[in-house]
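G., before I forget:
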Amino acid sequence: MKSKHSSDETLLALTDGELSVVRVLQTRVHLQSCWECRARLSRLEATAQSLAEARLRSNFLSPGRVETARARFLDKVREEAPPPAVVRWSSMPVLGRRGLAFAAAAMLSLAAIVTVWRQSEPVPSVKPRSSVTVPRAAVKPARPVSTPRAIRHEASPVASPLPHTLTAPPAALGLDQEVAVWWMLHETGACRGDEVHVERRLDKIYLTGIVSTDERRQDLLARAGALDFEVAAELRTPTDAPDQPLPSTPRDSAPAERVLRVSAPGEPLVREWLREQKVDNQKIGPRTAEIANASVRAADVAWTEAFALEDLRSRFGPGWHQLSEVSRASVLAMMRAHWRDLQRAAVRQREALAGVVTASQPAEGGVFEAVQQWNQAVQQLFAPAEPVRVPTPALVGHLSAALANIENMPGDDVALAAFARAAPAVSLGKLE
Amino acid sequence: MTRDEAAEVVNALFDGWYDSMVRFAFRLTGSVGEAEEVVQDAFLQLFNDLCAGTGIDNPKAWTFCVVRRGAARSIQHHLKREVPLDTVDLFFSTAPLPDADDGDMDRMLSVLTPRELEVVLLRLESMKYREIGSALGITANTVNVLLARALRKLQAFVSGPERRATTTLSKRLEAHEIETLQ
């Protein structure tokens, strides 16, 4: 016997507005007379409601993400060559011709995120990801990048021969691959002050952060694509997202050029010295500003270099003995370059402030501490963000001591050789 | 279709449906970052196909279909490489990750079969049966049946404790929930 009650399906279709008019009427009439069906209907609705509420609670998408995604999409579209135009009739609604204007506006205003995705092994996939991989293929380097022989690294070992043992760890990347990525940053100059973070995970090295120019970003992406292992990169340039504040790090504290403040305590010292040098009164002002700016710049460079040195030391020092010969040579070459630049900055600093800094005993501590002290002293002397409490002679003393400290460090090769011998335990400042 | 017109269509979809698609893909892959990747790829494919003059009746359903395929592929890809998908999120997600509160939704949906899950997810995004059907390659009638079945299961799940409280005394005695009849 056919039940005269409405089925769940019918009731659901009724609430969802999916029934034909005739059946809607039939069902409504039935519902008016049938308690049981009404009860079932309300239970169905209650369930749907609790589901919808649970979804609302778990809504994690922020409002701005659509725009970010749209900008990303437009970026990808722009990167692709326009496909051959086959104009055919289609049933798509044509909504207007604001497309280009919109595209230009969005591209100008929003962040661009480019992902380089590189397979380290050919995946014997049954379904090729032909159309879906288009965007990733599109950002692969067009031109081959010549990688110096010294940093060619073996590809990471491919997946384990026992794919069914769940406990087997995925093919892990080693420190050597990380060195290669660092070398890449070094070659493009991104290690000098750019906020790029290198993170090694299970099967990939992640490269995230902000690089100063778009050329450098393109360069990095091209090089990353040429490596033998997977590097996932999300790099922005400051112009990509002007609204987003840059991450604040110690490096931000010293922009290359500061507006000279009248209250900078170092300024009178420099003026006095210039007067002693019989410099023309007209030129004392501009010369002072010049010297102050040169000092701030030198301190900034030194800070960046010291940061890079410290980064290298702390990253590769502990695992020094696991590194291959090639990687060790790469790390040493990078450190040597940073160390040389640091010393040059110290020389420039001393030249700029020849009349102010004095001969001094080296300070305690390693390179990092010395540069920190140097940077702080210069900041307070020439570009104080707030009134300086430390007496000026003390600041000059700190600066002189820090410079002496760096100048008295052992020659680069000696220090670095010591690093190579005993990297884990020592700080670079105490290598002898 | 010109690139302009295709951009217009994609633009409209972005406005109306991007969030829905990411949510849908997220429920399948369990990773926000991967979900966004998949949706991006789908939009790009839609754009290319529209430019190439492929007739697409319902771009929304079409894109959902591509998103679904992409999500399935990404799951397989990660299963093969034994990398948990949510590691992707640590780096590539711009969204705050769904927090513990989300467990509610997860627990509810865990009682469904994959097909039912998909139907429910798409219905939650306010899609019509016919659209859901063409996204999943089934008829509107099947969607109706799956949806009703899913809701019945969810109903049992949601009202679980209450229902147990109303079971007959003899059942509760058997289950040692109560000692004696008073």
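DSSP finds ten helices and no strands in chain B. Chain B touches chain A through 79 residues (CB under 8 Å).

More on Monday.
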